[in-house]
């Protein structure tokens, strides 16, 4: 269970990016965060795993208060938070297996990490997850030889190798074509169900948010202005979420949402 209370993030003397935000994410749930550019979606995810330092507020993951951790305690807590990035963040010269096993670096000693000699249990689990993601046959292939969709699947498996208590995904499909995007979203949903793992996704595509997640959180100017099921995302709710956004973003969100409604009716 993730519990966020009165989370605020301010850069210097500027207006806060996050404004006393409250949010809870339960086990075995897939939650999408939507909103215009600059709404604070990425900052929220990066505050959770402390890539960005919150200004004030509380972030609690199960029995651990994350905001007060430092040094070794923080490193250990980060092992419990898987992160999937828009840009994949793979090491191109390494193989798929080596990239996947890097998800265990926080759990092995220095010499095992340096020589990449991981326990057999880790290797077996890596093969299992790669099979589930459809990339096991690429185990010995260099990461820079893969397509975008294949690279993102490696990123998903690497994050899951941490055996995390929550999975964060920051625009995981933004650089993928529509078909591949849907495949990656379906993979995340299936793995969330299979592993009873909460997944929190920052996503621009409202259609995919409605189709693949069970809860949508809409943000505007650092605040949550909508929190409900996909079927509750009315036109009025969309207008409130995207109020003041550039016209192209508003139209794209509207088109995505209408596509989701049409798909649900079929």
TrEMBL record:
Q: Does the keyword S-adenosyl-L-methionine apply?
A: no
Its cellular-component GO annotations read: membrane
One annotated GO molecular function: ATP binding
Bias (Basic and acidic residues) occurs at 247-259
Tell me which species this is from.
Ferruginivarius sediminum
Q: Which SMART domains match?
A: AAA
Q: Which PANTHER family match?
A: AMINO ACID IMPORT ATP-BINDING PROTEIN, PHOSPHONATES IMPORT ATP-BINDING PROTEIN PHNC
Protein name as annotated = Phosphonate ABC transporter ATP-binding protein
Q: Which residues form the ABC transporter domain?
A: 2-246
Highest taxon listed in the record's lineage: Bacteria
Q: Where is this region: Disordered?
A: 247-266
What's in the keyword line of the UniProt record?
Answer: ATP-binding, Cell membrane, Hydrolase, Membrane, Nucleotide-binding, Translocase, Transport
What EC number(s) does this enzyme carry?
A: 3.6.3.28
Which lineage is the organism of this entry classified under, starting from the top rank? Answer: Bacteria, Pseudomonadati, Pseudomonadota, Alphaproteobacteria, Rhodospirillales
């Amino acid at each position: 269970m993730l519990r966020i209370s009165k989370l605020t993030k301010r850069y210097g003397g500027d207006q806060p990016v996050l404004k006393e935000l409250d949010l809870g994410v339960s086990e075995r749930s897939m939650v999408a965060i939507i909103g215009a550019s600059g709404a604070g979606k990425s900052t929220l995810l990066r505050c959770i795993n402390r890539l960005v330092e919150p200004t004030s507020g509380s972030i609690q993951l199960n029995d651990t208060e994350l905001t007060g951790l430092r040094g070794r305690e923080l490193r250990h807590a980060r092992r419990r938070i898987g992160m999937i990035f828009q840009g994949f963040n793979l090491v191109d010269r390494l193989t798929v297996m080596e990239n996947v096993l890097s998800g265990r670096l926080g759990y092995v000693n220095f010499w095992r990490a340096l020589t990449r000699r991981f326990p057999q249990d880790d290797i077996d689990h890596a093969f299992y997850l790669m099979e589930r993601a459809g990339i096991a046959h690429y185990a010995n292939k260099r990461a820079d030889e893969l397509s975008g969709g294949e690279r993102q699947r490696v990123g998903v498996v690497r994050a899951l190798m941490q055996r995390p208590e929550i999975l964060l995904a920051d625009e995981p499909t933004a650089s993928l074509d529509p078909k591949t995007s849907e495949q990656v979203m379906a993979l995340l949903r299936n793995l969330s169900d299979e592993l009873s793992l909460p997944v929190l996704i920052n996503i621009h595509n409202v259609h995919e948010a409605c189709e693949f997640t069970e809860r949508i959180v809409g943000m505007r100017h650092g605040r949550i202005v909508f929190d409900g099921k996909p079927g509750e995302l009315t036109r009025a709710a969309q207008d409130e979420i995207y109020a003041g956004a550039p016209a192209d973003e508003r139209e794209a969100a509207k088109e995505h949402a209408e596509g989701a409604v049409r798909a649900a009716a079929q």
